[in-house]
Amino acid sequence: MPSATPSSPPRIVLGVAGGIAAYKAVDLLRRLRALDYHVAPILTPDATRFVGTVTFSALASEPARTSLYGDAVTPIPHTYLAQHCDLIVVAPATAHLIARYAHGLADDLLCATLLATRAPVVLCPAMHTEMWEQPSVQENLATLRRRGVLVLGPVAGALAGGDEGAGRMVEPEEIVHAVKAVLGGDRGPLSGRHVLVSAGGTREAIDPVRVIANRSSGRQGYAIATVAARLGARVTLVTTLERALALDVTRAVDVVRVESAEELLDAMTAHQREADVVIMAAAVADFRVVASEHKLKRSQGVPTLQLEPTPDVLAALVGARVAGQVVVGFAAETTDVETHAREKLVKKDVDLLVVNDVSAPGVGFEHETNEVLILGRDGEGERVSLRSKEGVAEVILARVASLLTQGAP
Ligand code: CTP
Q1: Which residue has the higher pLDDT, 245 or 195?
Q2: How far is it, in rounded angstroms, from Cα 161 to Cα 166?
Q3: Extended beta strands in 69-145, E state
Q4: Is the CB of 332 under 6 A from ligand 1?
Q5: What are the residue ranges spanned by the domains of the chain?
Q6: How confident is the model at residue 349 (pLDDT cuts 50, 70, 90)?
Q7: CA-CA 20 to 30 A from 94: which of 108, 139, 140, 199?
Q8: Omega before residue 6 within 30° of 0, cis
Q9: Looking at the predicted structure, is the pLDDT value of residue 243 above 80?
């Protein structure tokens, strides 16, 4: 329930759990207040062993709270805070806090407020690498992401006790970027826009244990999601990758996990209506196997796999295009690249076609870098020389932003 009015600043609940990164939450609070956000801190009992409520109360818009049980002014603090905020940020979010939130436990004020709110939630995990890599932690986060929680970081770097590795909380500056993006306060060229992007390669079942996959790493789609969020967009990333954080999506991005072309089609069409921009960066299988219900046994001899076509996701999205929506397709080519790409641009009826010559060195699948040709409806081609996939994403999204201001078809 957004509670800011034009005359009142957005209200943020800043949750602080019990980890050493709690000291950085003081800096985060100071930065949020400098932007005039109304900030109400909640410290878990363990957080108070690292930092004191006095510090938070002195810097915040209202006194820091630690107890589920209120006072005469605010008798039920968790419902009050949950209903009167536009965003909850938890920094740091410990493994324990993440587990309690994922499992719906409400044994302290922070968890009860997280359960009681309908506002967006941003979690900034911080813990030792061994804890971060535990399947239990990753599964809890996957559950929360599926429910729409945004997870920022962690990043690799120095950890408590002189250790190094993944698990360091993202810096307060980065968290502020995300907060601004979620609250729509970022003035980037895509601010106020919703970008829907697909990434990765689809996997089609042969039987309950085997799949047909492809070599897409998902990096270009993730780079587009990251840069779009940095430019102020709200982003939905539909991905086939199991571990979203294997790639750097540290900003305000909603992640939806899919596996097959059919699931990708369902997820993309479900989100298409509210999107200003649709970008099909995923490598979609063109054929799938007529799958066997039971595992194919070696003793039955070499099977003959019967193939059937998958849905053409891009064609479905173009067919259901909303007025003013910019649709971007990708093309992977190995021969006569430009000729095939120009034919594809017309056939696919997209606003922009991003063409990879996947046979060139350092380009396309499984590489950190990319080199593309961007074709527009007017037939104008733009060659983007070899650079990082984020660098390529910046050029694509600059073209998208300019199409949006011109008013796409
Ligand atoms: N695409 C899709 N659904 C499919 C196949 C492809 O949405 N079943 C999308 C891709 O995400 C990409 C674009 O279509 O944005 C072009 O993909 P590409 O494989 O280059 O083209 P195809 O139409 O499959 O043509 P071909 O493989 O014959 O070159």
Answers
A1: 195
A2: 14
A3: 87-93, 121-125
A4: yes
A5: 11-183, 194-406
A6: very high
A7: 199
A8: no
A9: no
Which residue's CA is the nearest one to ligand 1's atom 8?
Answer: 312
Catalytically active residues, by annotation: 214
Residue 102 has pLDDT above 80, yes or no: yes
- Domain 11-183 homologous superfamily, CATH: Flavin prenyltransferase-like (3.40.50.1950)
Between CA 85 and CA 89 the distance in angstroms is 11
Phi-psi map region of 157: left, alpha, beta (phi>0 left; psi -120 to 50 alpha) = left
User: Which of 310, 312, 338 best tests ligand 1's pocket when mutated (most atoms within 8 Å of CB)?
Assistant: 312
pLDDT of 74 above 90: no
**Of 222, 218, 280, nearest in space to 253 by CA:** 222
Ligand 1 atom 4: the closest Cα is on which residue?
312
For residue 329 and ligand 1, the question of a CB distance below 6 A is answered with yes
- Closest C-alpha to ligand 1, atom 18: 331
Q: How far is the CA of 331 from the centre of ligand 1 (A)?
A: 6
Q: What is the pTM of this model?
A: 0.63
Q: What CATH number does domain 194-406 carry, 3.40.920.10, 3.40.50.300, 3.40.462.20, 3.40.50.10300?
A: 3.40.50.10300
